[in-house]
Fold:
Amino acid sequence: LDLCKKNNLVFDEKKYYLYTGFTRKDKFLGLFPNEFDKLWPVWDKAYTEKYEEFARIFPEVMDTIKSLKEKGILLFIFSTKKAYLIKQALDKFDLSDYFLEVIGGEFDPIKPDPKAIENILKKYDLKKEELFLVGDSKVDLDSAKNANINFVLVDHKKKSKITTYYKKINYFSEINDLLN
Structure:
């Protein structure tokens, strides 16, 4: 919002929600197409510098991650965010040791290309049936589809427009129910 004020831009909250499920960059491009080239680097830098402050986690997520790890489930993070930002957030919440790998936006090619998932399958000798992607966005769904693995939609606010999924859950903690 500060960026909008400084550049005399109007932030349209309704339009913002139309881009739910898009990457940050695509969302910004959709909201401010005429100003994108000028303002994206400024906004991205500000976001990156303050990401650790923004990062938050719901208590149920921490408990679920710990529970999954105790059950011997292999956990990975596959994101469009840079891996070092994710690792900062994991360190902040003492969750770094729970994940085998963090695959961030610097991995080329990026989501929704299936290459990163294929690398995980091969590196850890996993079968596609043993893996599912948990996410809340269209790019997550497309990543799972492209890798031909199951997609679990987390729809916390029960407003998702995504209609294709293996399972739909409203809370991250419901993953435990899927495994039983």
